[in-house]
# Entry
Amino acid sequence: MKSTFEGHLFGDKVIPADLLAEVQQAIVKANVKLGNGSSPNIRAAILGGLAAKGWSGEVALSSDSEITITSVKSKIGLCLQTGNVSRMYADLMKLQKLYVDGAIIAGIVIVPSAQCAKKIGSNVANSMRLSKELKIFERVITAPLVIISME
# Structure
């Protein structure tokens, strides 16, 4: 798969280039046929690549919570969203909470491009919508982020 990225509030400057490259490599190496119901395969392929580079498994937001983000490495939080668009907002809130608490210094959100999202299901989170709406919520979501679009 191909990937492109864009920064939100200088996330592309805060996140070390080597960590960003690891994430993009995991996406590039994810050789998954896109189609309805392919989200679990996409997730498994990308998460396998990230784990090989030392990214954690799921991380809880607090010790008394079952709410998690996908991964963390070197104080960079990561959310991989290939599901319903409504979950995209939950991911933003989770990254913002970890940022405000000082648990992370920035976050990465991996989502399909709009075209890719249409191939894997209906009403799937996508980078075009996320980018557009992050501009609206710039004073609410203050964590530096990088949005990575999978194609």
User: Anything to note?
Assistant: Residues 85-100 form the longest helix (16 residues). The two ends are 6 Å apart (CA to CA). The longest strand covers residues 106-112.
